[in-house]
Amino acid sequence: MNRLFVRLAALSLLAGCAHTASSEAPVAAPGASAPAPAAAAGPSAEALRLARQADMLALSGKTAEALPLFRQAWEQGVRDQGILYDAACAAALEGQKAEALTWLERVAEAGFAESNHMKTDPDLASVREDPAFARILERVAANEAKLNVARKPELRDELLRMLEEDQTARRAQVAAKFKDPAANERTKAIDLRNTARMKQIIAQEGWPTKTLVGERASKAAWLLVQHADLDPAFQRECLPLLEKAVAAGEGSAKDLAYLTDRVLVAEGKPQRYGSQFHMVDGKLVPRPIEDEANVDARRAAVGLGTLAEYTEQMQRMAGGR
Asked: Is the domain of 157 the same as that of 284?
């Protein structure tokens, strides 16, 4: 199982099986051939708890135990792409081919857009030769194509190449538990080079919006700026550009929240959304938060889950180093 972008590299680094973001019901049975229509209301706290528990079981190899919980979470309205993909992997690994294909149909319906990953993920080997898999893969590829529509395809492709280099370097750091000096230096060199190029791009084009470079490359631009920690003044300069893009529907409010916190922490100020963590007594915890009593309301306003959920996720990822 291989988490997309290392969950965008721990949101400082977005990759197990769980893979991306969300969508949100009378439920088809696990072996049914088509996804159920979306429910109007989002999942309950209990449904999200079930989903997280299933996800943790699956990621620890306990796929047989995870599957009933994935089913319950689905019945209670969970439509997160990462959870659905993990359920597909769990079913495939348990030899439940029909159920695995049902989960993959649900993944495609939720907007999953990682066709290359789906084609190569070893967890899905047992269903890859089924004709239904090819049809689902076509839908995933169509989702992917929508994210890549761009006015400047050359710039889109360049940003995606930069992102891949960024993520490859960070995966190497994670694999070495950040104890390999060569891997750490390589990441630093890549960050410096990418920051210099991002400065040029933004000076010439402004913020790389969804219309300009496509949704996926716009996300890549944000992450490259998020990783420009060696130039916090540049990150601060980018903040109003991203704010303007979000206001115009050309950027992500979640991305803006993460960059806001990054800039505030770099300036020695309390963060607003609780996205930035550090180690305290050997445990990963949020850095100081402004008006912490209302942080979940601010997080909800930009489409983020609760701070408790995010803290659990971050600590789980850190524990997997």
From this structure: yes
